Amino acid sequence: MEHQINTESTPQASTKIENRVASSSQYSIAKNRTRREIKPPKKYAEANLVAYALNVFKNKEGTPGVEEPRYKARLVAKGYSQILEADFTDVFSPVVKHSSIRALLGIVAMHDLELEQLDVKIVFLHGELEEDIYIQQPEGFTILEKEDYVCLLKKSLYGLKQSPRQWYKRFDSFMTSHDFKRSSFASCVYFKKNSDGSFVYLLLYVDDMLIVAKDKGEIRKVKAQLSEEFEMKDLGPAKKILGMEILRDRKTSKLYLSQKGYIEKVLCRFNIQSAKPSGRTEYGVIGYVDTDFARDLDRRRSLTCYVITIGGCAISWKATLQTIVVFSTTEAEYMAITEACKEAIWLKGLFSELNEDLQISTVFCDSQSAIFLTKDQMFHDRTKHIDVRYHFVHDIITRGDIVVSKISAHENPADIMTNSLPIIKFEHCFNLVGVHC
């Protein structure tokens, strides 16, 4: 990457040069002390160097009212040239689940909490590397009289396989050192209890953060701490996260999520132009279960579908093929109930950890025989082929942690994921889980 620099010695020219360099990927790398030029180690041949490339983004979408769209360039390492065990080991990096985001937004709506958003600039340049990685000097930025030198990366770089993991490890270490606790139920969910009994919550999805607190002063404190450690961009009140537009009506204690663009593409054939999962969060986890017996024509596996709501608002949902072949609709519904119970238990645990106690969860199913099977193991001889992990639902129900009840098929919103429905029934199912067309 080469910058053409005007040699005019005027204040205007100097400002142009400064702005151009400051907006370049090289400026970010230099500012974060990401690399250091050294003589190539003797044990490293040319083939041992990690190659680099320059990615130029013609236009990066800005944030309305905060940041204008802009051109952006980024120097990246060609991670595919890295060698396992030599240049990297572990690469997994957790991110917050969408259902965790919706759960926290439910708490925000219920208690009318403050909700603000931050973005980490050049996020992967903050990670600390644990391996020695060398790259060639970028073209156009070669050090004069040191053309045979290479760059030893002191911090992670975009494109390296371990960059996301190294960023997460550094951020997690920072948060725990500032008295935040990491949730044991959800990845990248942090919370801290203040002296007055209130809580501060933080969710992380790579470089996007949501901060929630009762008082804006507490949010400002967290922002200040983060800004001292990382280069941050304050986006103010949260307006959009992971493609979901956030809309609030604080007078009625409602919070809306809009995915208009995505939903218009997927549901345009149903003449639905937008859909907004919404609702006021109240106590109680309600689940709805349905199945489509032997839907998979190739392997004859059934479809498990469930929707979990809190206060009439859809928080989590799933539609997936079951892992084994079952012999009846009863067995298929039984396995679906188990999956829904697992999700309901997880959500209840997450809310409890975030200082929200929920009532006993209820899972509704339209199969009476499947409900009998969850409460009585008299059919055990017929279900020996079902994995042991599905039978734990019997113990959960016996302890009273979850109640499984009958519901008519007409009032079961999970039906929307298993059958082709007329428009009236389709809209009715949406209304049952707080989705308004």
If you had to describe this structure to a student in words, what would you say it looks like?
The chain has 437 residues and is α+β, with helices and mostly antiparallel strands. Among the domains are: 11-83 and 130-160, no CATH class; 282-436, 2-Layer Sandwich (Nucleotidyltransferase, domain 5). It has 10 helices and 21 strands. A 6-stranded antiparallel beta sheet has the order 7-8-9-10-4-11, with helices on both faces. A 5-stranded antiparallel beta sheet has the order 12-13-14-15-21. Strand 17 and strand 18 (313-321) form a beta hairpin. Helix 7 packs across helix 8. The radius of gyration is 27 Å and the shape is globular.
How does the SSE layout of this entry go?
Elements: H1 11-22, H2 25-31, E1 35-38, E2 52-60, E3 70-77, H3 98-111, E4 114-120, E5 134-136, E6 150-153, H4 163-177, E7 181-182, E8 189-193, E9 199-205, E10 208-213, H5 216-229, E11 232-237, E12 240-241, E13 244-249, E14 254-258, H6 260-267, E15 276-279, E16 285-292, E17 303-310, E18 313-321, H7 329-353, E19 361-365, H8 368-375, H9 392-399, E20 402-406, H10 423-432, E21 435-436
Parallel strand pairs: 16-19, 19-20
Antiparallel strand pairs: 1-6, 2-3, 4-10, 4-11, 5-6, 7-8, 8-9, 9-10, 12-13, 13-14, 14-15, 15-21, 16-17, 17-18
Helix pairs in contact: 7-8
Whole-Å distance between the termini? 49 Å
Main sheet: strands, sense, barrel: 6 strands, antiparallel
Backbone structural class: alpha+beta
**Main CATH class of one domain:** Alpha Beta
SS field, number of helical segments = 10
Q: Order of strands in the sheet with the most strands? A: 7-8-9-10-4-11
CATH 4th-level superfamily of one domain: Ribonuclease H-like superfamily/Ribonuclease H
Q: Based on CA inertia axes, which overall geometry fits?
A: globular
Total number of strands: 21
Question: Which CATH architecture of one domain is right?
Answer: 2-Layer Sandwich
Question: Overall mean pLDDT score?
Answer: 78
Gyration radius from CA atoms, angstroms: 27 Å
Which blocks of ≥5 consecutive residues have pLDDT under 50? 1-27, 42-47, 275-282
The portion of residues forming beta strands comes to: 25-35%
Q: Would you give the CATH topology of one domain?
A: Nucleotidyltransferase, domain 5
Helix content: 25-40%
Organism: Gossypium anomalum
Protein name: Reverse transcriptase Ty1/copia-type domain-containing protein
Pfam families: RVT_2 (PF07727)
